[in-house]
Amino acid sequence: MRRSLAGSLGGLLVAVAPVAAQEGGPGILVLENARVWTGDSAVPEARGLVIADGRISRLLQDESTLGFPQDVPVHRINLGGRRVVPGFNDAHTHFFDGGFALLSPDLLTSDTPKEFVRRLKAYADGLPAGRWIDLPAAWDHERWPGHPLPSRQLIDPVTPRNPVWIRRPDGHIGLANSLALEAAGITAATPDPPGGRIDRDPATGEPTGIIRDASELVRSAIPEITEEEYREALDAALAHAAEVGVTSIQDMCYDPGSVGIRLLEEYAREGRLTVRVYCRTWLGDWTEEADAGVRAGSGDAWVRRGSLKAFADGALGSSTAYMFEPYADNPENRGLLDAVMQPPDTFFALAAGADRAGLQLSIHAIGDAAISLVLDQFERVVAENPAWDRRFRIEHAQHMAGKDFARMAEMGVIASVQPFHAIDDGRWAERKIGPERARTTYAFRSFLEAGAPLAFGTDWPVAPLDPMRTVYAAVTRRTLDGAHPEGWVPEEKITVEEALRAYTAGSAYAEFAEVEKGRLVPGQLADLVVLSEDPLEVPAERLEEIVPMTTMVGGRFVLVIEESEAGGPSQPR
Length: 573
Ligand SMILES: [Zn+2]
What we know:
Number of helices: 18
Bound molecules: zinc ion
């Protein structure tokens, strides 16, 4: 089996599919001999789909009922009985960051300085001269025998043309090569900045390249990311999304008028966008959005906006999620509330204004006390402002106070959650929050039972973009360390169908797009995925092995996998 993008295939699908069935294209595309999970409770299953003008025009239950107008070409593709689901809609991504991460080398997992240098060389050799190598989480000398700190002398020979500024995962220590030190004007004569330190050779006093808690010394010399680099990142991210079956994203976080939004709109105009994007901007910029006429869900089928992000607190990993009770491993600490919540009236003023202007609120809240506080402010907004279909969102909604499930449901607040975190953080979360709070943590079943709308996403690149890994996480709750084969807090497991619904119709609702997408029914956009195996049939522990064979966005194939064996997924007649 070979993976490839449709555009690179010399074969049959390329000839017919890009022109047929997509928006404005002539012809009708029939996907037959399929098992379609429509996501629609009225007609949950179909045997095939008819696609015209980029949308689903009909469901097929029985192939004998085919009957098409004579004057347009009809392309029929036999899917060999495979499962088709609506395209996945990731409700929380950082798409450009994800693209940059895809383009970055993996230096961190090098187990010796020699291997680290080898990988750095391979990467640097492929870059244009002068391009900065500026990477977070790029090395960890604790992994190396004897734990020697690296130095500029270690990396100078393999980076003769590119300034280098690469950090340890903790973000506190960075390594610069000589070109970077030169560009930043750091010499033996440079004094240590307050709170930071430039490591120096004890014999000569010259900087070694290691700089501690003073990244601003180097950062000021690094040029802004160029438009060309953004394009490279976007191209990489789009290709990856097609590969894993993601057809829509709800992305963080843009400045109004930023290069990211401009590029997405340009790609959309030129027909090069293969993912639909709901761009979220910062709550603090709400008047700019409102003045520009942006409202919740404004835009076209490709690039939309009108949702605003703010942080209420930090995260569990850094013990900054804001909790009612102290952390189990640190009785002094309850986490940190973001400045915009101190006092909450600051947040309320912004939130009420944005809500009155018809903009949606997507608020990051992870700790139980932060979530409660955001819900309090949402209640004030509801009480003060005229009623409308506002669809408040809490991003992450990770550690819930038991009393707040019902409150979220009552106000219709969307839980925008990332199940992969449950099996990743689940390895150590209980150490930080204790067993009692763990019971209402990543509580997907409880949201559904309370009746709170659920939308699935990943926070890519924090977690993998691959939706089947997220579905696996929500259904099995098996932590990555293998410590919970029956699931961590197994009462909170959900079914495959519930997970698929949260990832398709649930996410579409969260972006005011449920009329356009999220189900495979007549009138909806032809965004879909053909899967290698049926998630409704495979054992749960194998869900993460399922891969897309075909991804389609708006009636256009953006991924087609050729199979070596006969009778693969693509047999146009
Ligand atoms: Zn995020």
